[in-house]
Records
---
Amino acid sequence: MRLREFLEGLGQDELHKIEGQVELADVAVALEGNAKAVWFERLSLAGNVAGSRSRLAHAFRTTPRGLLQEVLARLKNKGEVVEVQKAPAQEVVEKDPDLTALPVHLQHGFDGAPYISASVDFTRDEERGVTNVGMRRLMLRGRREAGIDLNAPSDLRAIYQSAVKRKQRLPIAFVVGSHPIDQVAATMRLPGDELALIAALRGEPLQVVKCVSNDLRVPADAEYVLEGYLDERGYVEPEGPYGEFLGYYGTLKTNPVFHLTAVTHRRDAVFQTSTISGKTLARTDTAQLNAIRAEVGVWRALETAVRGTTAVYASPASGGAFNVRVQLATRAFGDARNAIAAVFGCLVNVKHVFVVDPDVDIWSDEQMEWALATRFQADRDLVVQSGFRAIPLDPSLRSSQTGAKAGFDLTMQRMPTPLPPAYEGRRFDSVEAALRDGPKHFVELMAARASRDGREIVRELEALRPRLARDPDGRYVLK
Ligand SMILES: Cc1cc2nc3c(=O)[nH]c(=O)nc-3n(C[C@H](O)[C@H](O)[C@H](O)COP(=O)(O)O)c2cc1C
């Protein structure tokens, strides 16, 4: 389950392979808005690998629409972790570890420096006795020093803060170059050991190896491992600005410092970069990874709040979480509002929830527009609440500490959509015989007479007119 093999398994519709010389200064432009993963062969660098739902689905051997259910099914796996002594990730141990020897490029115009962005971090939470895994960017600050953004609430932030309280360094290892499944696992925030979570999502035992300069365990099939520690000084150095996942620059932050102690890698290692910001969020690694994480969280919350959830979709254009769609077979009045309330509470990132009936395709923007236009009355179906914990990166907060959430109840009494007719039903010798059998729609009368035209049915109905009536559903009946 190494990155190189995943890339080799992608077709031309999913992968843009650039064989010629590319300078680091040109990498960001090649990735911006690209619907495909890009493999810069001469740089031995791949980007935007998880930046589409179809590639994530490919990683999980399912379809884009089947992705959520596949992930939910795999989350039920136990997840076995096996330690090995020799690992491809350690085929080469760099004698002079140097962050500036790696193909790290400037991602956005005003970023503070080149960033490593596809960095999956591994730490030990000694209090819980588990390995924590996440994704955290690294701002190059020298050959062996980088800034790490630990501002947002996360398990790693809590683990680091308690190490700082004890005046201790926190050993950490970053895998750069990993299978998309490992990144999905890294961005999930679930209780428990997250090495086991990677194994569960992979659907096979995870081989891990001990790092060469600390006691952390990392996947043996990683492309690169950057080992080191976060120093005990806490939040001391400026980090940023950086093009953030909502499509805006973040501010210059004060953040901890990462110190590099070793670099190990495969002989034919592929370095990796993640797309984060820009004008086309839907095509970034961050939005796609966020989306599947949000869908899992929402699905689980709805499992206990209401019955009848049939699909959940987090729109990647909203950063993969801010706008969430729920398809619900409502069983009782008020179900849609209960669903909205549950989604409000389950994830900080979710701001807007759209609940639709099962006949609306939640993967279709067109269908969602139609449902919003025709099934929604703003004074009746809008739920607005304020004072929620919010993501400070959201510029619409205008520096407020908390934010508002809105739910759009787009459900309605079930009404059939006017689709092209399907001529199905029993045959009869005449329209009259068909109507003696019971009330029928015009289409059923056509089917009853095996009509491929329809106008002769009009004539037969005309002959019956004195004895003919219509029921409240518009079906023809004999008086
Ligand atoms: C590509 C990518 C980069 C990310 N970078 C950061 C980051 O620099 N800082 C941060 O706090 N979260 C970042 N995140 C979000 C965290 O990885 C995510 O919240 C994760 O669940 C945190 O894990 P933890 O709570 O187990 O520590 C990033 C996510 C992605 C997909």
---
Amino acid sequence: MADCQETLKELERFIDAELAHFEAEVVVSHLKTCTDCQGAFEFHTELRQAIRVKATRDELPDGFAERLMQCFGDNVYSPD
Ligand SMILES: [Zn+2]
């Protein structure tokens, strides 16, 4: 049975699916019984998704372009 310290240490690799099957099972069985580690797992998962979205979608956040226009005027997007 893994303890919290061990589980948290493996959490990032678990989320990245880098653990061997038996190692992942140890993490999963611990997560089922430990709300502290569940919270950490959810936090890391959301963090990872946020980073992935940011890295793969090279888009400005909603309204950001409009705010730029208001600050700098329409010329900011017309280099001519
Ligand atoms: Zn734990």
